[in-house]
Fold:
Amino acid sequence: MDRGSIEVFTNDGVTAMSIAAIPDEKNTKLQFIPVTDDTTIDSAQVYRLKSAWGK
Structure:
């Protein structure tokens, strides 16, 4: 999640999704809602990235 987008990569990078968003700094939750009943999430990794702007 950055200041203007949320990016999700699945299946070792086979699928990528970018969502334009300006998240509220107080809202730190991320929720995945499956669109089909057979969708599963076996594991997830979240990485904190350093600022590209040098701040």
